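Below is how a single chain appears once it has passed through the pipeline. First comes the sequence as given, then the structure the pipeline wrote out for it. We keep one example in the README because the format questions we get most often are answered faster by looking than by reading.
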Amino acid sequence: MQIPLFIGLGAIAAIVFLFISIYNGLIKKKNDVESSFSGIDVMLKKRYDLIPNLVETVKAFMKHEKDLLVEVTALRARAMNPNATTDEKVEANNQISKVMGGIMVAVERYPDIKANQNFLKLQDSWEEMEDEISGARVFYNSTVLVLNNAVEMFPSNIVAKMMNLTVRKFFETPEEERVNVDAKKLFGNE
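Resulting structure:
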């Protein structure tokens, strides 16, 4: 009678140990995602501070692209909303990247802007900041991948469901940035 009792207690102890191990692993993965996003959040704050300066500089020159400027300003407000979830902020920043890409393309049609020293300094700051954000996004996306795998794979998906953990959104590269650059068009050699 003693042996089945010990086997039963051993099985229960193993299940409890497995549950605790999975639970702690999920908490670590969730915290890694939040920590990596907080690093991006600092850089995004710099980006948000730069957007009004870029918009005001460009606004003086660009009359026809007013809709783009209004859209990027609205997206900035949405991304800075303190009540927004991480996924909502990720989505808003993905859209900001897309719209800002459109503004930078539109700038090409305005030689006066391209020659403006204030704009050139802002553009350099923007490009440097985007490079930093890009590196941080890679790290964030890798932590999200690890968490998402744990949330979706068995047996950790059972514990994740009990913890109300869900799949997180990735920072995405805007479609325009995925297209290969045509050097002939870039240098006017069509």
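The longest helix spans residues 2-59.

See the next section for the split statistics.
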